[in-house]
Amino acid sequence: xxxxxxxxxxxxxxxxxxxxxxxxxxxxxxxxxxxxxxxxxxxxxxxxxxxxxxxxxxxxxxxxxxxxxxxxxxxxxxxxxxxxxxxxxxxxxxxxxxxxxxxxxxxxxxxxxxxxxxxxxxxxxxxxxxxxxxxxxxxxxxxxxxxxxxxxxxxxxxxxxxxxxxxxxxxxxxxxxxxxxxxxxxxxxxxxxxxxxxxxxxxxxxxxxxxxxxxxxxxxxxxxxxxxxxxxxxxxxxxxxxxxxxxxxxxxxxxxxxxxxxxxxxxxxxxxxxxxxxxxxxxxxxxxxxxxxxxxxxxxxxxxxxxxxxxxxxxxxxxxxxxxxxxxxxxxxxxxxxxxxxxxxxxxxxxxxxxxxxxxxxxxxxxxxxxxxxxxxxxxxxxxxxxxxxxxxxxxxxxxxxxxxxxxxxxxxxxxxxxxxxxxxxxxxxxxxxxxxxxxxxxxxxxxxxxxxxxxxxxxxxxxxxxxxxxxxxxxxxxxxxxxxxxxxxxxxxxxxxxxxxxxxxxxxxxxxxxxxxxxxxxxxxxxxxxxxxxxxxxxxxxxxxxxxxxxxxxxxxxxxxxxxxxxxxxxxxxxxxxxxxxxxxxxxxxxxxxxxxxxxxxxxxxxxxx
Length: 611
Description:
By secondary structure, this protein is α/β, with parallel strands linked by helices.
């Protein structure tokens, strides 16, 4: 794992056309927002509409009140009959603004919660449909990790959009008051604020570019953080003295990212302060002009109050408008990976009108000139494989690591599609079958099977999740796999939480976990069973007990077994020896030993270690 990352300069910022083009990513997200909570969206917009016009309404009422008082004091004029109602109206308007502000906060909280829940669910659903090869591509995995974060972190953009609408309407209402007095005054305010807006936007894009470049390094840091504090690595961490090494590498990465972030923050501080000064200059220039006009008698005191309030409000809202828009543009850049993630579609899927899997399988499975190379690689892991598996037949795949044993399993289960050739089930290409229905007839226990941080019962039930509440079948599967004796020792039996991630959980040994995994295969009761090193973590006695039941597990089914233990594969009907992407030898154990080929050599090497 490399710990070198880009120097302390962010990648070049895109041109303005590309920057504004990022806003095209916003509508798809707004559609997701609307879908997650349409009622809350409508309510929030209506409340913001009302709140946005209250400030200028308050200023108009204040103007009338001040002018009425001025005329009453200066010219002994009677107060208008509705004077005290104006005072009450101003109080009501201010109280409404305060109360409705709370309503907006409530709507934002509810909307954020609903959107986060909705987008997280959609992300999980879409990720579950993607091809396995996507998860094996580091670049796409980086994109997916950013998409996960973007889905929940973009709540701020939604709130900013509501604020943008509110600020826009408020700005228009203030601008109307200023334009009535002097259009040039409003233009002057806008011109002074624009540089600050451009500066904020520029640094927002630089921040995005830097964040994008830092993604691989942040993944490395997260890996090191987990590695430095996980149960799985704790033993070697202590015995090999890896703590200082991992901490040092983490600090190196962290320090480099810190320097990059601080460097950008310093530039933003210096230039942002200078540009913001122009906005302040615009406000006080307009403010001084209005005071001058009042002093020379062109404006009344009420008009002074109205205009100074409108100028202050317009200046703040124009700056807020530009800043909020800049923030939305910034946020929209971070939506790129989220939108692109949802645009990625699986290639391995069911065709329209796909066939149901045959029940029972009558002709078996056949590989016809099957070759496979991983995307982006020219090297063929498998090259021209031809094999046939009869109904009820039990096959074993043996060979050195990297010879394609697991790849055959992934092709057989259609986690991959062949690069060349066909895989036929009862004479029909696997791609013609409904994928979900096909998988129902396949039971697989991989060597790196999952340890679910769930109850013992649920850990078995994942083999056939529709039977999660069928304790009779779950216990029957546990008995057949010898997991029953493991579960009986647990304090809560089948209701015992397994693993150490959550409070009250209990971990199992490797062999005990493997018995749980084998119980999933028994519960699955599929026509095709694939067992990838099913006894790798078992002791000799447990392995013997499991294979005493092997015939029962595979009775009437096709079974494919991957194992490095020659004692394990002896009981199958046919053994396939893989080498250099092809089938080097095949036959029964006794025949292959007699032939004296590659299998006989592997068998002799293992047998010698027991003598």
